[in-house]
Amino acid sequence: MCELCVKEEYPDRDTLCVEQGSYMINFVKCSSCGQQGLRTSNRKCNDSEEEELITYEHVCSSCEHVIAQHEYTFKVDGDFQIYEMSCLLCGSAEDQRSIMPVDPRGPAM
User: Fold this and answer.
1) Is 2 within 8 Å of 65 (Cβ atoms)?
2) Of 71, 21, 75, 19, nearest to 47 (Cα)?
3) What percent of the chain has pLDDT over 90?
4) Which of 44, 72, 81, 103 has a CA 20 to 30 Å removed from the CA of 52?
5) Which family does it belong to (predicted)?
6) How would residue 50 be classed by pLDDT, with cut points 50, 70 and 90?
7) In the chain, where does DSSP find H-type helix?
8) pLDDT tens digits, one per residue of 71-93
9) Domains parsed from the chain with CATH numbers
10) Which of 60-70 are b and which e, b meaning 16 or more Cβ less than 10 Å from the residue's Cβ?
11) How far apart are alpha carbons 89 and 93 in whole angstroms?
């Protein structure tokens, strides 16, 4: 992972957890070749009964320099769906959503 390629390391994305894509506004340029193109590589999805884990790398489309490793997790815990994301480029985020028609915690503030 390369801190020189991003504006901010692990920006706080609040509850925005994404399983694909790139947060391009946080990408400066490739520190190896100076280009600004990105692509994803080595995408893996490990799906079990307990959780779904998706991982992939953000790499420079010109020189294959690894910019960041993206990790997204989804699981169900009781009456809640839990989402988590961690990536140097895309940021860190967590979210919980009730699986019930009406959230037992009440309305979101």
Assistant:
1) yes
2) 75
3) 78
4) 103
5) Belongs to the Churchill family.
6) confident
7) none
8) 999 999 888 899 999 999 999 99
9) 3-98 (2.60.40.4240)
10) beeeebbbbeb
11) 12
* Sign of the CA dihedral with 45 first, then 90, 88, and 40 last: positive
CA distance 57 to 43: 7
Q: Is the pLDDT of residue 109 over 60?
A: no
- 79, 62 Cβ separation under 8 angstroms: no
For residue 102, pLDDT beyond 80: no
Query: Could you give the maximum distance between any two Cα atoms of the chain, in Å?
Result: 51
The span from the CA of 39 to the CA of 16, in Å, is 20
Are 63 and 32 contacting, i.e. CB atoms less than 8 angstroms apart?
A: yes
Confidence grade of residue 40 (pLDDT, cut at 50, 70, 90): very high
In single-letter form, the type of residue at position 92 comes to S
Q: What's the burial of 46, exposed, middle or buried (CB within 10 Å: 0-12/13-18/19+)?
A: exposed
